[in-house]
Amino acid sequence: MTPLPSSPAEELALLERELIWLNTRRVQLLRRRSWLKAALRAQSAGGWQPPYGGQPPQGAPGGWAHAPAAHPAPAVPSGSATGGPGAQHVLLILGGLLLAVAAIAFTLFSWGELGIAGRSVVLAGVTAGALGAPVLLRRGLGATAESVGAVALLLTVLDAYALHAAVLPEADGAGYAAFASGVLAAGWAAYGVGVGRLRLPLPAAVVAGQFPLVLGAWAAGGSALVIGWALLVTAAGSVVVAARVPVLAVRATAWSGAGVTWAGGLLIGLGESVSASGPLDAAAPGVLLLGAAAVALRAVWRAPQEMAVTGGVVAGLAAVAGVGGVLRTEVPWSWAVVVYLVCGAALAPVARIAVVPRPVRGGVLGAAAGVTGVAVLAVLPSAAATLLGPAAVLTGLWAGAPDGTRELAAGAGAWPDALSVPVVLLVAAVLLGAVYASLVQEGREPAGWTGAAGAGAVGLVSAAVPVLLVSADVAYAAALVVDLLLVAGLLAAAVAVRRVPAAAGGTALWCAVAVAAHAGLLALAVEPATYAVFGLLLVLFAASAARSEEAVARSLALVLSVVCALVVASAAGASLELGAPRTAVLVLAVPAAVVVLGLWVRTPAVVVPLEAGAGFAALVALGLAVTDGAYLSLVLALCGVLAAATAVRPERRPGAGYLAAGLFATATWVRLVSAGVTHPEAYTLPVSVIACAVGLLRRRTDPEASSWTAYGPGLGVTLGPSLLALWSDPHWQRPLLLGAAALAVTVTGAVRRLQAPLLLGGGTLALVALHELAPHVAQVFDALPRWSVPALAGLLLLALGATYEQRLRDARRLREHLGRMR
Q1: Residue 584 in contact with residue 630, Cβ under 8 Å?
Q2: What span, in angstroms and rounded, lies between the C-alpha atoms of 371 and 397?
Q3: Integer-rounded Cα radius of gyration of the chain
Q4: HEC-encoded secondary structure of 143-192
Q5: What's the predicted TM-score (pTM) here?
Q6: Is pLDDT of 515 > 60?
Q7: Which of the residue ranges 265-279, 395-409, 755-769 would you say has the lowest mean pLDDT?
Q8: Residue 541, burial from CB neighbour count under 10 angstroms (0-12, 13-18, 19+)
Q9: Which string of b and e fits 524-535 if b means at least 16 CB within 10 Å?
Q10: How far apart are CA 615 and CA 556, in angstroms?
């Protein structure tokens, strides 16, 4: 028993001894293997005699079995024997190739030098000799037999060629090739079965069997359909061989051949079906395609899952192409998509047939889904153009009621010539709805693909109905009513979140928005319709928001209700012929109503989206009034009033208060500019004095009040208009007075540690200085050479980069200092 090492040095020595022993043992085993190989070669050469005179290597105690342990067998000298099986295979392959080349050369060049008898003797002798190679199997030369057998197969092909060239030169090439390939296939199959242990003849027979029927049909002058049937029958035979023969190489070859010939027959059937001009012409290709579907089903009936699903898909598609190709010849091309879609829908009952394996059923249903998807994609561009067609009404609002909805879409210049587009969408929606209902009935949760099926059905119906209205040229009033009913139904489905999957509910909500936009565009063609439609949409979205339990749906419905109210208010201004600036004042009624509602509701989940819509309405009002300074000032002031009213609520006080102050100041400036006032200080300075006095009193009663709240509005009322007037004032008095006032305000803010006076005064002082220095700076720049500007900029950047960390620390200290001010 080996003692355990007591130190790392002893353990290292022990490992070294073990490694030496392993290397020695490896050398012994390699020598023993070489000795055994020599013994086997001697045995195969005939009359086995043990090496070394029948005695084990010298010094082998206890017999040969112990020889490697004590005295390993001597190694065979290098080069005294051939290498392993790899070298043997290389030699055999090279020998077979050389024989094949020699046979080809003899057939092509030396064949004509022999007479009929000589040719027959040579053919018979060489082929018979090559085919007799399996006898070598009895002597253990399997690899040699495989090589000679391959040469024998090649010789049979050369024999067939030589027979045609010398004996039967008048025979038709294609017909003779069909006959020869059939004979070779049968002969190779019999040869492979008879010999038994050769691997190549049976797969070669399968390959040769792919040609007789096809070449025979071609030689007989058969039509494309005849050749297609020949390919299909060949594929069916290959499928039978692949299913019955257990040899892996034969099965792989048969499956490959079946796939190629089946695909060729399918392509021929598709081409003939598409080009057929009548039902009789399309019937024969249809039968061929159905045959292709049957062969595909037979091939994958018991196949693994992935292969079975794929086979079910291609079989379903082939069946749809076959039946649909016959039916579509009786309808216009615009309805061909509908025909194929209906044929695809007919595949669905296959899923109910229990005899069909489940993977195959899944593949057939996948084919039905694929046909549905392709049909929808085919009509999608026409559907989109039809849905966007009413947008042309924006170029002529309230132009009058049209005779039909198609007249409104004429401006876009796109709608389908027939009802095929909405029919495709509706049929696809019905199919998806049926799938959804079936899965729900089976007790599956309405999520995942199930939910996607429901959402797809909702989306297709929502698109199909407006497209149908335009395609059928429905009366204008009827189209509006249908759109509004569809919006109501979609909103109801979106609200029922507990019974409708989230995917379907969300799709219903966004589809309701899209259909509402379509109805709104239609309504803009007539003045009364605008009020009626947008008023009803306002009610529908408000009711949906009141009943919705989902935050996103509720917020979206609230925003859209405000938008509808905004459209009604804008339409009222247009009806009263107020013009855009006066209409802006009327539009502010919408945010005013939202502010009042916010004071009453006080629920953030409701108030926030309402305020977002109100903000959008206020921006629209400002846009309408921007061309008139007086009305713009009035709108700004009214917006300031609304912001101040919102600031009454404690949670909105800081932001709304600042916004109100800024709006009031901006309104004042705009009013002064629009009135042509050149000395705004006469109007703003009294306001500033009063506002600053009020701020001072506020600071005394509430020391925690911010300087921006106390002094910001008062200082901004005067400093802002004075700065605007400064840039157009050619005199020196205003810059001097404004600069002195700004300096005083800045010093006061610095001494009293007030943030608002410091920043407002300092900013004003900097702008005044810039105004005064601008002419001199311009003169300096004119005097400098052009290269000096980029040079100075580069020096400035280098200086800033070198002192970047110091400047950053200074900025942080300045920010902290300002933050401590009030």
Answers
A1: no
A2: 42
A3: 47
A4: HHHHHHHHHHHHHHHHHHHHHHHHCCCCCCHHHHHHHHHHHHHHHHHHHH
A5: 0.63
A6: yes
A7: 395-409
A8: buried
A9: bbbbebbbebbe
A10: 15
